[in-house]
Write a structure and sequence with these properties.
Blueprint (H helix, E strand, L loop, with lengths): L7 H24 L6 H14 L3 E2 L11 E5 L2 E3 L13 E10 L2 E11 L4 H19 L7 H14 L4 E2 L5 E3 L6 E5 L16 E4 L2 E3 L5 E3 L6 E3 L5 E3 L2 E4 L6 E2 L4 H9 L3 E2 L2
Antiparallel strand pairs: 1-4, 2-4, 3-12, 4-5, 5-16, 6-10, 7-8, 7-9, 9-14, 10-13, 11-12, 14-15
The structure holds 2-amino-4-trifluoromethylsulfanyl-butyric acid and cobalt (II) ion.
The site of cobalt (II) ion has 5 residues, from loops.
Length: 266
């Protein structure tokens, strides 16, 4: 399928969805701590989105039952929120989507609670850095393989981690998942060419151990086969000739992380 190019009006609407989404994850960041659980965070996120005129993109998508995907420790993505209490040292990946005025935004952030092991903190840092290296490649005329290469090269060759291959980033707009697919591995010059003013979600999922994953019995949660920790960061970005514009923002989230004494700053 062809990659959709967005008009300036459409871009503004995606930007608005991403703004509400970024503020929603900042609200979540204020509430993450040992002792709370996914159900509580999910309710909070859903209420915040609805109070501000949006709809949670994920709820009902392929019958997904929640507004957040919350993936804990060895869970990679698509974790369904549960009542299980978080513990000191857990890493909590929160993935969320907002649909407003006909357009989606999609982003994810991984939080660390309290005494996260140094090697896991390093995995968090490197995964976030790999997202920004991928975004650097998201300029008009480049290909999805340039993004995948940048992410994989940094995580797998410059660091000892593994990128998950079964799940990919994606175009985003009127629908949550559009062309192109944006893998977190690949070769420079491979894949679809990115036109100016297309919008894509880039979302490295990176494991401390092996890259293999499996789907849990709930038919949603993806987890590492070897039980190693996995980290996920995601931004929605606008492809431009010289430099991609990041439409979602970690600024409010990171301000909230700084002020939340229960979380580690990476
Ligand atoms: N955030 C996921 C993505 O980036 C989508 C979650 S799938 C859902 O593609 F079913 F939970 F919505
Ligand atoms: Co996504």
């Amino acid at each position: 399928m062809a990659i959709k190019i967005k008009t300036p009006e459409e871009i503004e609407l995606i930007r608005k969805s991403c703004e509400l989404l970024s503020k929603t994850l900042a609200e979540v960041a204020k509430a993450v701590r040992a002792g709370t659980n996914g159900i509580k965070l999910d309710k909070l996120a859903e209420q915040f989105i609805k109070d501000h005129g949006g709809h949670p993109s994920f709820k009902g998508y392929n019958r997904y039952p929640a507004s957040l995907c919350i993936s804990v420790n060895d869970e990679v993505v698509h974790g369904i929120p549960t009542v299980e209490a978080y513990k000191d040292g857990d890493i909590i990946s929160c993935d969320c989507g907002v649909f407003m005025n006909g357009y989606h935004g999609d982003m994810a952030y991984t939080f660390g609670i309290g005494n996260v092991k140094p090697e896991v903190l390093e995995l968090m840092r490197v995964t976030k850095e790999s997202l920004y290296l991928g975004i650097e490649q998201a300029t008009a005329g480049k290909r999805t393989g340039d993004i995948g290469f940048a992410v994989q090269d940094y995580c797998e060759r410059k660091h000892p981690y593994k990128c998950v291959r079964e799940l990919v980033g994606h175009g985003i707009g009127k629908t949550l998942h559009e062309d192109p697919q944006v893998p977190n591995y690949g070769r420079k010059g491979d894949g679809q060419k990115l036109p100016e003013n297309c919008t894509i979600a880039i979302e490295p999922m990176v494991n401390l151990g092996k890259r293999d994953v499996y789907t849990k019995r709930d038919n949603w949660t993806i987890a590492t086969q070897d039980g190693s920790q996995s980290v996920h960061f995601e931004h929605t970005v606008l492809v431009k000739p010289l430099k991609a514009e990041i439409l979602s923002s970690f600024e409010w989230i990171e301000q909230a992380v700084k002020e939340n004494k229960e979380l580690v700053k990476i």
